Structures are given as C-alpha cells and as structure tokens.
C-alpha cells in the first residue's frame, strides 16, 4: 500500500503583522534609550517610527509583507515615502523619517533597507544678520537686562545652539579680563571648548555679578532654569524690540559663522567651532551672498 506524502505548510506571512510592528517599536525604543543621540533627535525618531506604524496599520491590506522580508519592507517604506512627499513634507523631514524607519527595521526586524532618499536642494547663503541688524539686536538685549544681554552674546559670539546655550552651567565658563572659554555640550554628548571674545566676556561677567557665582544652571528666571524654549523666547522678544520679528537663535549662529568666514577662518576652523560632524554642513557658510559679492566688486573696481 502506497504511502501518501504529507508536507507541513509554513505561512510566509505572520499571523499578526501588527504584533511584528509593535515588537519592532519596543526594540527601537530600547535601542534609543541606550543611544548617545541628542534628546531632540531621539524624540523625533520615536515620533517618526510611530507615524510609520500608524500609516502601515491603515494600509495593512496593501502591504501585508511589510515585516516579512526585504522586498515587502522596501515596498511599504517606498510607498510611505511617496505619501510624505504628497503631503508636502520638506525633503529634510522625509529623510529624517526614512532614517528613523531604517533604524526601526534594522533593530526590530534585522533588515537593512535601501530606500531612495528625498533630494535636498542645495542650501543658499546663510541668513546672517547684517552688522547694522546685529548692533540693533545687541542694544535691544542690553535694554532688557544683564541676563538677556548675556544670552544673546553667547549665541552671537560663540555660535552656540539654543539647546547648548540652555544647558550651560556656571562651571562651563572660564573667564578672565583678557581671555575666556566656554564649554558647550553639543549633539550626541559631544563637548567642545570655544573662545569667548571680549564683547561676550563683558556681558557674561555682568550677568555673573548679578546672578552670583553659586554652582548650577547659568540662566535663571522667575520659574527656575531656562529651557531651550526659554532661550528661544528671549531671542524672539529681543528681535521684536530690534525691529526683527520672528528672530530665532539659529540666525545668530548663522551670523557667528558668517563673521568667522568673513574674518578669514578656514572651513576646518569653522567646523570645529560650530561642532559640525561633517565639513559639508560647514561649506554653506563659504557661499557669499549677492550683497557681499556686489560689495567685493565695488571695492575692487572703485
């Protein structure tokens, strides 16, 4: 009597694809908890990964293999990329979202995806303040008191990011009448020491005299230490008083980098002072704007 061969059928697709997504999210969150990434980056990655999971749940019928194999995963992420672009998300937002989802798959599913990034237009000239605008900002900050004058001085004369400025402690300053350095805690727990020129030393010294030399956060207010948003609000208020509504801390950083370049600093020096991981990021500050080009031509042919 002939035997009938039997074979065990193994389903290619998981019985509960939503469970696979949730497991991947849990693994990603654990990984991010251990990573030395900036808090804002970690927060953004978590949000982008959750947004992808929500989108995938709404399109589960179209992408049942999204967490099965490379082909299914890349098809789903590519469709999500098209969705983000269709919603008018900026190229940088799209690429950050794709980076977060790449990490989601790598950590949570063991898959390394190859999905094309959105094309980021080459940035134009940095939006630096003119010398006249910078003077107006510094005068407006001075009218608001020693603390706000010192905050604006740190942003303008050390190129600190808003988060780096907000994280400063008294112990991060080393000031004398002739020299000064400031210790900035940057992205990914990177620390750099930046020289403090005389104009900023004067304003920081005035604030320390008012605040006192007790250890702790450098910037204090009525409700305690200032946060990133508190620093941004100081700049916004100062900008309005100086006739520059909508002024943000990063524009003061752009101004610092532009002044360095105009003063003869080379790209490597600017990169180190700004704390850029890549020289490509620094390169944008070495593109002279239209007004500066016109001034050079006028000076040469005058």
From TrEMBL:
The keyword DNA-binding applies. It holds the Pfam family Phage_integrase. Residues 121-141 are annotated as: Disordered. SUPFAM superfamilies: DNA breaking-rejoining enzymes, lambda integrase-like, N-terminal domain. Residues 124-298 form the Tyr recombinase domain. The lineage of its organism: Bacteria, Bacillati, Actinomycetota, Actinomycetes, Micromonosporales. It comes from the Bacteria. Keywords: DNA recombination, DNA-binding. This is Integrase/recombinase XerC.
């Amino acid at each position: 009597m002939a035997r009938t061969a039997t074979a065990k059928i193994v389903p290619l697709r998981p019985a509960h694809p939503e469970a696979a997504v949730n497991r991947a999210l849990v693994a990603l969150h654990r990984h991010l908890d251990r990573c030395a990434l900036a808090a804002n980056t970690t927060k953004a990655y978590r949000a982008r990964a959750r947004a992808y999971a929500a989108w995938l749940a709404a399109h589960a019928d179209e992408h049942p293999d999204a967490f099965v194999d490379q082909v299914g995963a890349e098809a789903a992420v590519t469709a999500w990329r098209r969705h983000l672009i269709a919603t008018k998300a900026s190229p940088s937002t799209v690429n950050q979202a794709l980076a977060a989802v790449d990490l989601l798959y790598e950590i949570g599913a063991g898959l390394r995806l190859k999905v094309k990034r959105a094309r980021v237009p080459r940035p134009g000239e940095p939006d630096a303040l003119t010398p006249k605008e910078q003077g107006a900002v510094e005068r407006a900050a001075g009218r608001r008191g020693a603390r706000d004058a010192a905050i604006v001085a740190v942003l303008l004369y050390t190129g600190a990011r808003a988060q780096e400025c907000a994280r400063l402690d008294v112990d991060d300053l080393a000031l004398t009448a002739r020299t000064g350095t400031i210790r900035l805690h940057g992205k990914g727990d990177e620390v750099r020491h930046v020289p403090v020129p005389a104009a900023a030393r004067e304003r920081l010294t005035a604030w320390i005299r008012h605040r006192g030399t007790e250890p702790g956060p450098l910037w204090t207010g009525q409700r305690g230490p200032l946060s990133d948003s508190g620093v941004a609000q100081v700049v916004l208020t100062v900008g309005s008083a100086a006739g520059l509504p909508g002024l943000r801390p990063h524009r003061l950083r752009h101004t610092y980098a532009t002044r360095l370049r105009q003063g003869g600093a080379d790209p490597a020096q600017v990169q180190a002072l700004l704390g850029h991981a890549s020289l490509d990021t620094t390169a944008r500050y070495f593109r002279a704007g239209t007004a500066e080009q016109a001034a050079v031509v006028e000076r040469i042919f005058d």
